[in-house]
Specification:
Structural class: mainly beta
CATH architecture: Roll
Number of strands: 9
Largest sheet: 9 strands, antiparallel
Strand content: over 45%
CATH topology: PH-domain like
Shape: elongated
Radius of gyration: 21 Å
Helix content: 10-25%
Length: 162
């Protein structure tokens, strides 16, 4: 709980899927199709947002040397951000393609997060988690407002005769 905020109910982590484009490669040695699949959790703990994720890279190949599939699992990644770095959070996409968009004050805020753009990420949400995502958006907005409230020590103090 943030000192400036009231008692916030605990919000469970929001599951999400990563949106990372794959690629196809054709060269003199063969054809490769590379795809990425990732899942994670978005946590709100007071004035901190935490993203954690795991990703899998699958490479299917048809080459002169043979046909095969390689699967690589990445280690679990974690990114923590102060809530006041977030300038926008929106639940978009309606019923069919729900997604959560987060925009940051800094272009490097989401560096290292798979599929991020400068200052922005998009998390795919399952339809069954839309209400959960909406509650998390509201909680983030409340926390952002609480963080930006002036505190007593932020207010200018007037000296004698002012």
């Amino acid at each position: 709980m943030h000192p400036a905020s009231g008692a916030m109910p605990q919000i469970d982590p929001l599951p999400f899927r990563l949106r990372v484009p794959g690629q196809d490669v054709i060269d003199s040695e063969g054809v490769w199709s590379i795809s990425y699949r990732g899942e994670g959790l978005l946590h709100l703990d007071g004035a901190t947002l935490t993203l954690e994720w795991a990703a899998t890279r699958t490479t299917e190949r048809v080459a002169v040397t043979g046909v095969g599939t390689d699967v690589e699992h990445s280690p679990i990644g974690t990114l923590e951000l102060p809530v006041d770095w977030i300038i926008g959070v929106r639940l978009r996409g309606g019923w069919w393609w729900p997604r959560l968009e987060l925009r940051a004050r800094r272009l490097d805020a989401f560096d290292g997060f798979p599929g991020s753009k400068p200052g922005m990420i998009t998390l795919k949400i399952r339809r069954r988690d839309r209400d959960h995502a909406a509650a998390l958006v509201a909680a983030i907005d409340i926390e952002r407002a609480a963080v930006s409230l002036p505190t007593e020590r932020d207010e200018p103090r007037l000296g004698p005769g002012d």
